[in-house]
Amino acid sequence: MKAVCFGPQCALEKQTVPLSRKTRAVSRAYCPKYCNCIRAGSVVSCRGGGLLEIPSQEGALKSADKLYLQDNKITEIRKGVFSRMRTLNYLWLNGNRIKTIENGAFEGLIQVFDFYLRDNLIERIPASTFIGADVPLTKRIYLQNNNLKSIESGAFHNMKELKTIDLSNNRITHISQDAFKGLTNLQELYLYKNLLTSACWVTGNAKSFQSLEWFGIQSNRLKTLPTNLLGSLPSDINLNLEPNPLICDRVLKLIYDALMARVNKRYMEYDLSSWSCENPQNPSHMIKVADLSDDKLEALELAMEDATQPTKLQYSQASPRVGHSQSPLVMICTCTGVFGLLRWSIAS
């Protein structure tokens, strides 16, 4: 007859059963090679494991919540590679060598909140990238530090809850007029350090930008801005345009004045102190009327810069510190730096 065990030692024996050799072997087979599985397999970390491709969808990967694949040598994301990872919420693929993403590559990812794809070699995000994936819950996509050259129409199709898109530090020269169509919950869009020469696409995506709070487009190659740029963006948006080789034109002056008004009336965080523009086409259009007849002018700042198209100003009541009151003083306007900072030099 087999003895019956009573007492606390029996509970201890039962607890040691899962630690048998057989169980440990099953556990190792359950976790992909070169990976570590914790929290009963809900977290799978293959970080820095030297992987050349995404592991097969077996064992823990079928029920994982978080999958860390960063800092490997993965070069492509093939179609269907995630098709059975239906419980995945967070996917890290940053720091690989990914260049190609096949159509339907993210098929099966029905509840991913965050995609981390930064620091790769990705060249395109075509409209078919997320086709086959039900991604209405996705909140954030990080694509900075890649080789993207354009953002095509429908690139983020069906991502209705998307709040953050980071496309900074790529080589983007073109953005489709409806590249962000349907993203009505978008709050942050970062496009700094690209090669954009136009911002006309902003107006085409205006309906998707009504919730936008942060818009970074600094360090591009923008020379002109669309007239209705601010009209296409929320009134309380934090807009960063500096530095860009902007041309001093009427539109830029209007945008600058509008932003200054927001700074004065609200507690906006625009830093306009470094704003400047290049190659003024006609500085005279910046000023409609400059009447100094009633001013008590005591001193003038002399400027040595040459104006390409100088504007003359006649001051009819010179002060003793400037010249003789009997004769008018003619000065040349030289526009330098930010709008409104005008320097005057005495004409010969």
From TrEMBL:
The keyword Secreted is annotated on this UniProt entry: no
Gene Ontology CC entries for this record: plasma membrane
Record keywords, A-Z: Leucine-rich repeat, Receptor, Repeat, Signal
Keyword Oxidoreductase: no
SUPFAM superfamilies in the cross-refs: L domain-like (SSF52058)
Transmembrane segment boundaries: none
Source organism (scientific name): Plakobranchus ocellatus
Protein name, per record: Variable lymphocyte receptor
Native organism taxonomy: Eukaryota, Metazoa, Spiralia, Lophotrochozoa, Mollusca
